Amino acid sequence: MSVTDSLLAFSLAALLLTMTHGLDTALILRTACAEGGKKAFQAALGIDTGCFIWGGLVALGLGALMAVSELAYTLLKICGAAYLCWLGLQLLMRPRSSFSHGDDNPSSNGHWFIRGMLGNVLNPKIGIFYVSFLPQFIPAGHSPLIWTFILVSIHVAIGTIWSVILILSTHYASAILKKSSVVRVMDRVTGGLFLCFAAKLALSSR
Fold first, then answer.
1. Helix, strand or coil for residue 20?
2. pLDDT digit string (tens) for 125-171?
3. How far is the CA of 192 from the CAs of 3, 140, 198, in angstroms?
């Protein structure tokens, strides 16, 4: 496979993965509708950072260790499922009727960034995907370390563009989606989705 073939094939695969990756999409849409585009973009940057962290681990060989270690995979899977359960229960049990952007509070600026990042870092499926998927698109004779970061960067770029599209799609409907009754329903629905993702993650196998 040539360099051009590798880039084109991976770009297509990454695009399909990004558009069907439910957890990230749910988080971006919910944050954009309820909190605004600025915080949704912070969450998107957090998701991107999580991808780079996994890319770094895979490039350094730690991802491969996790792929063959049942204990390492199970521990990370439990942490990820627990985090998603906590997030989902918060939305289900304490849905909000309004939101404060808190733009003048510096301590809140990284809140959604952290949520987006943890959502990816605590999902071992991302690591397993990178370990099993990326090597197929590394051209023979090229550095696995360099190409891992190139491919992850492509994945992140596509994910960022998709996040921007999602954020912009909610802009015109934000007045309706920010109504207290709509916000409460949205929180509960998103909380339920997060619990479903947590269950799917907890019951998954490598």
1. helix
2. 777 778 777 777 888 777 878 888 899 999 999 999 989 988 888 86
3. 43, 44, 10
Take residue 197 and report the two structure tokens written for it.
């993702």
pLDDT band at 45 (very low <50, low <70, confident <90, very high): very high
pTM (predicted TM-score) = 0.71
Query: 11: Cβ–Cβ under 8 A, 6 or more apart, which residues?
Result: 154, 158
- Give the DSSP letter string of 65-119: HHHH-HHHHHHHHHHHHHHHHHHHHHHHHS--SS----TT-GGGTTHHHHHHHHH
Residue 190 neighbours by CB under 8 Å, 6+ apart? 26, 30, 88, 91
Give the Cα separation of 180 and 130 in Å (integer).
40
